[in-house]
Amino acid sequence: MKWQISFIFVLFLVITGFHVMSGPMLAGDSDRYLLGAEELKNLGTISGKANRYSGYIAFISAIKMVTDNHDHQLKLIVVFQALILMVALICLYRIGRHLFGTPSALIAATLFSVNFYLLRWTPFILTETMFTSFVIISTYLCLITSEKPRFLLLSVGAVLITTTLRPNGIALLPVFLCYLITRLKGFSRLAAIILLATTIIGILPILHPILSDTAENESLVDKLESGTIIWDTEFMDMPKLANRSEDQVTDIFRYLTTWPLESTKLMANRLYAAYFYQRSDYSLVHRIFLVVVIPALLLLALVGLITAIRRMNSVDYLLPTFLILAQSTVIAISFADHDHRFISYIMPLIFLFSGFGATVVLGAAVSTRRST
Question: At a CB cut-off of 8 Å and minimum separation 6, what does 201 contact?
Fold first, then answer.
């Protein structure tokens, strides 16, 4: 298998290197991150919406301490992002091998290495590359911690970084915590509970302003009423909620129970747009490619998941499964992204099941051919 692994790494390095050479690139929230990092470096604080991305801003601030040259800072950020992404590739391969075996791991790693929609973010001064990488790294560390508790501190650290890189990490945090607590036994479980409780208490000053700011500025009722499917691009008509209260939870419950069919349709459209990479400005060839490839990958992932449920003695496959469900829930209740970023965070985890599904289908085909 050595030559296959070497080939995958060469493929990854060539494609990622091509993207890195086009950077550094600024877009969207780049200025917010850079200004936030400057504020953190000079004043030791992060204010405003930048609080939501404190982990990424701390990373940029650390780079700024290495050199005062702005161009060098941006290049170092991109280089580190590429290196972390390479670590994520290694972790993804190891996750696949741990869960489903080497052939499945090789397929998942190959899909990761040619995933344009993920690798294209490497030269950007944005959270996408780091967040996706740490979702994978955290998943791997939690899996090995369940067998080797000595990695507990390392896995909790990785989960903490994932949580603070961008608000999506908060939705994934309960999944990681539940997995660690339920999988560890005896003294290791007690140690995990104490460590996790201490960590959560320690990061509450970071999480509280994030949650408060998100609740204030990202009303889920507004998202429902606006009928946003793809951010700022595609909408559907939705009813408006009269006589809103000041409690978002109450308003959301009223909205969903008053218009359950409309709400379900909106959420389904968001998930469809995200999972099937919908975008109106793609060329015909690009759309045909997506129509052929994406359904095939998702169908194989479904086969892999069903087979895992039926065959697996271990429940470790549930960790990536519930991480996928958690981020899918975020998309369903908010919106799909025009640049496919939100689905890119979990697509590598989906590739794990696609790889397993491919080996199941190929194995069944070989068995059928031999029997005939």
Answer: none
108: left (phi over 0), alpha (psi -120 to 50) or beta: alpha
pLDDT per position as a tens digit, 305-332: 999 999 877 889 999 999 999 999 999 9
Q: Would you list the DSSP string of 251-312?
A: HHHHHHHHSHHHHHHHHHHHHHHHHTT--TTS-HHHHHHHHHHHHHHHHHHHHHHHHHHHH-
Which pLDDT belongs to residue 279?
81
Where is 230: in which H helix or E strand?
A: strand 228-230
Yes or no: say if 350 and 324 are a contact pair by the CB < 8 Å rule.
yes
Nearest to 29 by CA among 343, 341, 277: 341
**According to DSSP H, which parts of the chain are helical?**
2-21, 30-43, 54-66, 70-100, 102-113, 116-119, 128-145, 152-165, 168-183, 186-217, 220-226, 248-258, 260-275, 284-311, 318-333, 341-344, 347-371
Euclidean distance between CA atoms 158 and 148, whole angstroms: 16
pTM of the model: 0.90
